[in-house]
Amino acid sequence: MPPKKPKQPNIEAEEKLSAVVIADSFDQHLMPLTQTTPRCLLPLCNVPLLEYTFELLATAGVEEVFLFCRVHAATIKQYLAQSKWTKSHAPFGVTVIVSQEALSVGDVLRELDGKSLIRTDFILIYGDVVSNMNLGKALEKHRNRKAVDKNAIMTMVVKDASPNHPTRGHQEAVFITDGQTQQLLHYVPSDYGIAPRKSVPVSVELFEKHPAVQVRYDLMDCCIDICSVEVPALFTENFDYQDIRRDFVTGILGSEVLDSTFYLYPLTHEYGARVATGQLYDAISRDVIGRWVFPMVPDCNLVEGDQYVHKRNHVYQEPLVKLSRTAELDRNVVIGNHSQVGENSRITCSVIGRNCTIGDNVVIDGAYLFDGTVVHSGSRVHRAILGYQVTVYENTTVSDGCLLGDRVQVGPNIALPRSVRLSRYGTDNAQVLDHSDQELTTGEVDLALVGSQGLGEKWVPSDDEDEVEVQYMSLTALAADVAALTLANPHLADNDDGGLSDSSQDSMDELENDNALEPEDAFGDEVEATLDRAFKEDHAVNDTLLELKGLRFANNKTNHDIRVILLPKILDLVEVQQLRTSLAAVLKRWGSLVASVINSDTDQADALSIISSYCLEASERTILFMPCVKYLYDLDIVDEDILLGWYAYVNKNVTDKERLLYQKLQPLIDWLNEAEEDDSGDEDDDEDED
Amino acid sequence: MFLVDQTGTSKYQIVPEFQAVILAGNKGHLYPLATEDNVPKALLPVANRPMISYTLQWLEQTGIQDVIVVVCPSSETQLTHYLRTVYEGTANIDIVVMEEYYSTAEALRHISSRIFRDFVVMTCDTVLLSSPQPFFDAHRSANPALSALFFHPTKSEGGGGSTKDSEWPLYVGLDPREHQLLYLKQGERVKENLDIRTSLLENFQRFDLLTNLQDAHVYIFQRWVLDFILVQKHLPSIQKDVLPLLVKCQYRSALAEAEGLTEILKRAKANTKHIASVSQWTTKRSADPQNPALRCNIYVEPKEFVGRATSIPSYCDINKQISKMFTDQRTHPTAEVHMRSQVGADSMVGNETKLDERCSVKRSVIGAHCTIGKNVKIVNSILMDYVTIEDGVKLDGCVLCNNVKIMTKAQLKDCEVGAGLVVDPNAQAKNERIVSSFVEGEEQDMQINFA
């Protein structure tokens, strides 16, 4: 409608600036803490997360907030009723929308469209985002851009962060942008390090319109989007879109019909992150304590009635804390009113809620204790989150990655294993409780796990959660096992500069600290151990195969990696003195295992190469070569034409030693050639290096 | 560092920094221009000067004195003659003859025994009018394993020859802040998707990916890279094989290891130790000479003219652009242009060439010793030496090789005519490659007959 155009700015100015806040997380990352408290009300540095989000919106001049809840709606409403956001001086009005059916962000936006609540650009944010950015500037940019590019529908706020930065939380999304306009041209969503990808595909068509693009892997998603009115409508049109990144952004960008465009708004000096996982809860807490999110720091007392004071070494303390004379708050500690710490206890890098009691000789390091938690004398809590009113009895160790739900009790005199999640509200995730005063389950308590006075059962992710999510959870759990992580993704080990800087690494560094080899060795040892056991205890082939497969997937290896270890191991079994008989016996016993790791033509050639290099290692092994290959041929593990092709290929470029070995194969080759004259043998593909 | 000569007076001897290798083979898509009966590629005229003279001059500007020119047997005589007697530069030119089919990396392997220090490799079809200093200074300051010169190709004006360039894009990834070359992929080797390695992303989290750059095929290599090229016997091309592999090895240590690069680097490191003191002494700011890190640099020529004559259209474009930039006298003093003929300000006429009356020459380059009749129109064309054009001929977008004769009133548009051919009177041709007496479609009203 061209005639209306000059009027438009006025209309927009009159429109209320609104924000859509999604209070539900739609995931289980912080279970079982979120069984009783919605994620947006979990305390981060003793302030409910929602306060951070609302504060950000208030500073941006938002006038209208739609808060979407699914579970715990009553709790959220109750919290809002007593908070400053519903007082008469509140900067914006909050409309709480409860929708039990919404199971994803997509559902929320479709509902938003259905109710046609939004008539202008809006801010889409989650109830658990912590940021100090100037949203106003981003909004202005978004609006100005719409004047230039009327197809612009969304501005995504991102922040520079090197891939291994803790606050990035293993997001491995790749953004391909137009360096000048910051238009997002291609988006490869994060796979969360589950199946480390070898490469990222970029369509060639992209370059037809944009001859020069920028590839950005140094960006983390702040989960703050400025959306145009069209966004909810697009979700309604594409009713299968669930996730806003994985489905919506990739879907619309890949669409040939729609020419809607996305833009990035990169933050450089501001902060923005979402508490999406346990690991991020830890990282963001540290950032808040370390004043990276200034002015949102504990001593600005976001919640009315808080009285935190900032002391040296980033210790934030309320006035009514009772510290014994010898208790030590080392550094980076937040501790709330009416909490007390006993003699010789030491607290480092931790957050202690209100009304907590910490006994004598307790060590608390990197832990988060919600209100009313009691830690008895002689216990240690290390990198864990303890919910409301948790009790840790005497001489108990809560180790890395534990998440203890409300009112769980552990101890005395036990050590909880790593990464255990305990709950007293059952492990049935389908019905999430709406009130914390609901009955506690009386399920059987595993006293061996939680101790003689313990209360609580082990919580495990529910089955309906898809497998990828579950794996991601274990990876991003608080204090996820760094060693396991390194195994899963050798790239991560390569460069950990830890800082926010995205300086490209000197290539020499990479050559020198080639950590990628270490995990492989670990994997090799494991496979060897498995095989030794199988040979010694005479396992069934299928069981061994299953174990090998498990190892392979766990370490993200290929069949080649298995073959390299398996074949020499099997050949080691052969006794050279009684070559024929023992070889026949060994291959009869284990041949099917060998066969099962050799699938394609390339695999066969690869196996032949492995065997030949094994035989080259020691001179007495050379006699093994021909019979072994012959048996593999007889067992149909190696095809005739592959063998001939391989033979022709390796003979092109050989050393003397190799030639001697290959000559042993000549009778077999001749025999094969005679059998089938027209066999020319195809070249086997060499392992693709691209 | 200094020698005492016989007379006993000591003086400093300048240690040359680089050697240069010019690959002057006949490869390319320049048939029928670069053939045995015409001239070798290196001697094709660009604004009435042999192509290779631009390359040599550019090298001389950097102070490089030792130049090895690799030629193929078919062009040996002509090229040797030119380099030994006609060319007036100061460089010491070493001519090496190699079989025609040798590819670029093979050529380097062949002459490796003659290369003693860091070296520059270029082809004769790169025409550079830019100053080499910024490129060389960038190389000196970062001290990478190699530096490559890239440029923004000038848009083709079209016209010139019967073929059209269907060039594949070159995908170039570079870190603009560090001038590091991170990704290199020939368009013809890409199917649907470019695959960007995770290891690349891990090591270089932010880089530009461009398709609007072209490789000038000018590289500065450290000496040890030659060792690597010697090991990699199966790699045929520097541009298409060696360079991408080195670029990949920057972030794929396992690959570098497998290809034997790590080993060579280690050795190179050990060898540089004793030279280190020298280079520290000569250049103050050499970036850690003890550490010949595997790093590929890219220098993107900001504005000055660089072009590559790899095909007939690009050859024509370069001719036009350079003749436009030419500031000296456009018409050679010995040329005779009739008063009533017009030669445009964007055209050039070579020595001893005669133009009769009522001729018009626009956006064209006419070589030496040509004879042009009356009422001839030449637009957008290149005429080499000893071309004869009779009255009333019209040429548009044509390339005529040496000794071509075009008879009365012939009209040619977008054609190439091979050396020594005669085009009949009243002949008409469009988009034709005229190379021999046999032409397809002869039986129709085609009026061309060839001697």
CATH topology call of the largest domain in chain B: Spore Coat Polysaccharide Biosynthesis Protein SpsA, Chain A
Class based on secondary structure composition and strand pairing of chain B: alpha/beta
| DSSP summary: helix tally of chain A | 24
Distance between the termini of chain B: 64 Å
CATH topology category name of the largest domain in chain A: Spore Coat Polysaccharide Biosynthesis Protein SpsA, Chain A
Helix content of chain B: 10-25%
Strand order of the largest sheet of chain B: 7-6-3-8-15-10-16
Shape of chain A: globular
Number of strands of chain A: 36
CATH class of the largest domain in chain A, please?
Alpha Beta
How far apart lie the N and C ends of chain A? Answer: 52 Å
Classify the beta-strand content of chain A into a percent band.
Answer: 15-25%
Question: In the CATH classification, which architecture of the largest domain in chain A applies?
Answer: Alpha-Beta Complex
For this structure, what is the CATH homologous superfamily of the largest domain in chain B?
Answer: Spore Coat Polysaccharide Biosynthesis Protein SpsA, Chain A
The major beta sheet of chain A can be summarized as: 10 strands, mixed
Q: What's the architecture of the largest domain in chain B in CATH terms?
A: Alpha-Beta Complex
Low-confidence stretches of chain A: 3-12, 433-437, 481-519, 678-690
How many domain modules of chain A?
Answer: 3
The averaged pLDDT of chain B comes out at 82
- Using the CA coordinates, give the radius of gyration of chain A: 31 Å
Main location (chain A): cytoplasm
Pfam families (chain A): LbH_EIF2B (PF25084), NTP_transferase (PF00483), W2 (PF02020)
GO molecular function, one term (chain A): guanyl-nucleotide exchange factor activity
GO cellular component, one term (chain A): eukaryotic translation initiation factor 2B complex
